[in-house]
Design brief:
alpha+beta, binds phenylalanine, 379 residues, 12 helices, rod-shaped, three-stranded antiparallel β-sheet, seven-stranded mixed β-sheet
Length: 379
């Protein structure tokens, strides 16, 4: 039992006992003094009737204030015949004590009631079922982007991000794709501004078609050794269908230093593929062509769904293509002022949607952009 409760009740009991004694004594003393008997009765009744602390305060003034009924009994003593004074004085004192003790007791009762009411007003029903906060989470694409970049950061790469609206120079020309190169075609490039012969600043500006311009942007500013990973958006003039989107995400990576070989490239991408798709994955490099790497290759990882046996995911071939790569073409070093006799490097790049689609067996690229929570919640 808590002490405070017991103490509170004891005090109340003492108050009640005291009031009872006082009432009894007053009853006897005022047996033949009806006026004083009335003062006592009215005092008790008005304290009893007060239903708020404010009302009780008014009652207190009416009884014990300067002109209060109890005060006046005591103040009037002087006007009484001397023989009456001791008896009425005693009654007056008892009246005052009774009024004080009853007011005190009532104050306690009303204060407790007020506290109960304010508790009830702000009450929390802890038995009601809770309302779960709606906690969001990162989009699958953001997660895959982080996962991929983290792997390279753990290998010592640093992240560099660049503009999505890009000059032709960075997107094509310095990447060894001269003006006649078919990759600049209107068919697959979204131009913001086309070259105009009478324009003073005749440069094509476009939405970058890949993240490779970041190779040039970083190399142009900095010197080897460089180990850079660059995720971001890329754009192509493609119709939206299950496997194409005009806006998509890529990740670019490159390393430039002295003595970097194709062996380094293979080891790096093998480590990456195993970290992302499982430690028993095999990696193969298929010869390919990119204008800015020589030699170039496409990187396949053994299908993690069938372990290379051939299944629906890998369309029966046992391998999944994850990105393009190659040794940076010495011509590219020419554009950024690196000595190709001294430095060598590799680059790789691929689609992040593609990687996520393979990893999570997603068969339609459009689900990444539709923001259907039934899809988003699964990851
Ligand atoms: N940029 C190429 C693409 O978009 C990929 C790539 C990057 C290839 C780096 C080689 C080196 O297809």
């Amino acid at each position: 039992m808590s002490c405070s409760r017991r103490c509170a009740r004891d005090v109340t009991d003492v108050g009640a006992e005291m009031s009872e004694d006082l009432v009894k004594a007053l009853d006897e003393l005022t047996a033949d003094r009806p006026r004083l008997r009335d003062v006592a009765a009215v005092a008790r009744a008005s304290v009893e009737a007060a239903s708020t602390l404010e009302e009780l305060e008014e009652v207190k003034v009416k009884l014990l204030g300067k002109k209060g009924s109890v005060t006046l009994v005591l103040k009037g003593l002087g006007a009484l015949p001397p023989g009456e004074r001791p008896a009425v004085g005693k009654i007056g004192n008892l009246l005052r004590r009774l009024a004080e003790s009853e007011i005190e007791e009532k104050t306690r009762v009303l204060e407790a009631a007020r506290a109960d009411a304010s508790l009830a007003a702000g009450a929390v029903d802890v038995t009601l079922p809770g309302r779960a906060p709606a906690v969001g989470h990162r989009h699958l694409l953001s997660r895959i982007t982080e996962e991929v970049t983290e792997i390279f950061v753990s290998l010592g790469y640093r992240i560099a991000e660049g503009p999505e609206v890009e000059y032709d120079y960075y997107n094509f020309e310095a990447l060894n794709q001269p003006p006649h190169h078919p990759a600049r075609s209107l068919n697959d490039t979204l131009y913001i501004r086309r070259k105009d012969p009478i324009d003073e600043d005749p440069e094509d500006i476009l939405l970058r078609t890949h993240t490779s311009p970041m190779q040039i942007r970083v190399m142009e500013k900095e010197s080897p050794p460089l180990y850079v990973i660059s995720p971001g958006k890329a754009y192509r003039r493609d119709e939206l269908d299950a496997t194409h989107s005009p806006e998509f995400h890529q990740v670019e990576g490159f390393a430039v230093s002295e003595g970097i070989t194709m062996g380094d490239l293979k080891g790096t991408l093998e480590a990456f593929a195993r970290k992302l798709f499982g430690s028993d994955r095999a990696v193969r490099f298929r010869p390919h062509f990119f204008p800015f790497t020589e030699p170039s290759a496409e990187v396949d990882v053994s299908c993690f769904a069938c372990d290379g046996a051939g299944c629906g995911l890998c369309k029966g071939v046992g391998w999944l293509e994850i990105m393009g790569c190659g040794m940076i073409d010495p011509n590219v070093f020419g554009y950024v002022g690196y000595d190709p006799e001294r430095y060598s490097g590799f680059a790789f790049g691929g689609g992040l949607e593609r990687i996520a689609m393979m990893k999570y067996n997603i068969d339609d690229i459009r689900v990444f952009y539709e923001n259907d929570v039934r899809f988003l919640r699964q990851f």
